[in-house]
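Model: Ready when you are.
Researcher: Fold this.
Model:
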Amino acid sequence: MAYLSAWLKAKYTSEQIAKGKEIASIAVNAVEKIAETTGWKGEVKYQEAVKYIAELSQKAGLRLSEEQVKALIEAAVREMDQAWEEL
């Protein structure tokens, strides 16, 4: 996570980073909800999250590389898993 933060800070403003994290969180949560009814697993969920992030980030004016999208998805999944553990 520290690597992700340092890497993002080198390329983006704090507002852009916050927006990217928010977009990834929204996308990951949406995909998880949809997967409950569709039965999506693994790679399908990942590809759907990538698609949602691409759409939302474009609307927000953020240009994210494939590597950045992957890192944001991993961070959002990690945060979601931690939230479940705390319950």
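Researcher: Now this one.
Model:
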Amino acid sequence: MSLRARIAIAVGAVVFVALAVVAAVVYPAVGANLRGQDDASLVQVAGNAQTIAAKLKQAHTVGQLVPFGSTQLQILPDATVGPTNAFVDVTGHDVQVASGKAKPYFQDEAYGKIVYRIYTMQFPDQPGVLVRVARPTSDATSTQTSLGWLLVALVPAAAIGAAVLARLAAGRVLRPVGRLTETVERIRATGDLSAPIETPGQDEISRLGQAFAAMTAALDESAGAQRRLVADASHELRTPLTSITGYAQLVRHGALADPDDLADAMRRVEDEAKRMAALVDELLLLARLDQGRPLESSPVDLVALAEAAVGDARAADCARTVRLVVADDGEHLVRGDRSRLHQVLANLLGNVRAHTPPGTAAEVRISRDGEHEVIDVVDEGPGISAEQRDKVFERFFRGDASRTRTAGLADGSGLGLSIVAAIAAAHGGHAGVQPSEHGAWLRVTLPATVAKTVADRALTRQEVPSGL
């Protein structure tokens, strides 16, 4: 069953129940009101008994049932229990009313297959004289019955009309949902996440369409990034795999009979295997960061972190001068994952080693800029050209080959700086390249925080993991 049909049925059911409740209240209320009007009319006619009695005496019709429109009047002198002339019998209760020993009262009594509403009272100032005024109950009953039939016809008709109107209104209101459904089905059938989704307006359905369009755009971008990552990773893995396969074939065919050649080949195979393992680890890290998995969060002292990273860099390349410069004596604290932030500094300094000549000086600067802590790594190497500054943090980007050749190192995976950018983004920060006339100037900004207790400050000074 379609949503429009369900809405129509729901609206029709609600209207039906509401009108049925109203009818259940109105029907007996109208009946009671008509009965009250009839009783008031009977009392009014009975109140004119003295005037009417004078006319009856002149007409010699006292004791008879005299019609006054739809009302019947009977005056009985010396009322006694028993039958009367052409009307219901007089009861003992009626005799007591005539004598003044009982109050006037109403009763419903059948006579001649007609049910009458009868009001019985004492003739004013005439004990023993009985006045009875009657009216057929069918007068009020017929009106109430007509109302009942009208309600019986009106309630379902109104419910059906409401359902039809709701069906038409739902069709107009849900038209954007229909277009959105068609687009989703087309995307499912074709796999084309770039299909446009048109949902003009500012209502809830339009907002749903806009949110879905944003979601498909993000999914399309993510799928494209995954395809590029898989293609790049396949390309990067092909080289070490080809090298390993080549050496394996040489060994299998006995082409490396010299033990030195064989040992060199095994070292090359081991190097390529390590390169593949490192590449896989970096890809897994990027995948986890892309999925938005939560990182550990604790106060981290950037000065202590930088001191450890600079020490590792000096140990890895004793000929290179790496200095740490802290802008002021204040605390430089951020909240985040200590090991990942250490990896940021390690990758930045590793980039210096990979792209600058041996012995080139480098400097790590820690400073504060408003609500952000700033990490700057500056070297005196060949630098980064203006057209490449926006690309150095892209995955598998290696930049100018002359920089790597100058370093005298083998090509890296091209993922080091992209990991820096991903970790910075995961901490709410940003990584970028600053313009520099000499060498490369890489900057990472992170939201600053303040340690609130001595225990927090002690925690930030814990030993930082080493290894560049």
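Researcher: Key takeaway?
Model: The chain is about 55% helix and 15% strand.
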